[in-house]
UniProtKB/TrEMBL annotation:
Keyword Transmembrane listed: yes
Name of the protein in question: Zinc ribbon domain-containing protein
Keywords per UniProt: Membrane, Transmembrane, Transmembrane helix
Domain of life, source organism: Bacteria
Residue ranges of the region described as Disordered: 1-23
Organism: Acetobacter musti
TM regions (residue ranges): 84-102
Length: 114
């Protein structure tokens, strides 16, 4: 993210009169999607409920999607009666697509700790 030269990283500017109703850190506050508690925008773990910010799929989800891609690739090979060279490429492509879909589907989210 690029900021202009006039914006010193969100600091209140000296020339601007400060409003008493608005604290400078309000803009850096986000609500936890799990417990709706307030926390800093940069926080990776909710201080209230302990939910954790996750990027991408969990290993188990990646395994499930990859296996799904593998099955689709094998089915494709059987249905089209492709040779093993074509089948291997198809399976590889399906696994790769499944993995990408898996990662993009589970973008970033908050997960409650067990
Ligand atoms: Zn929370």
């Amino acid at each position: 993210m690029e900021t202009g030269p006039s914006d010193p990283g969100g600091n209140p500017q000296p020339g601007r009169p400060s409003l008493p109703m608005r604290a400078p850190e309000v803009s850096g506050i986000q609500l936890c999607p799990v417990c709706h508690g307030k926390m800093r925008q940069t926080a990776e773990i909710c201080p209230h409920c302990g939910a954790e910010k996750h990027f991408g799929a969990t290993p188990w989800e990646a395994v499930r999607f990859t296996l799904g891609g593998l099955v689709i690739g094998i089915l494709f090979t059987i249905v089209t009666r492709a040779g093993w060279a074509v089948g291997a490429v198809a399976i590889l492509a399906c696994v790769t697509i499944a993995f990408i879909v898996c990662q993009s589907r589970h973008g970033h989210r908050w997960m409650k700790r067990p």
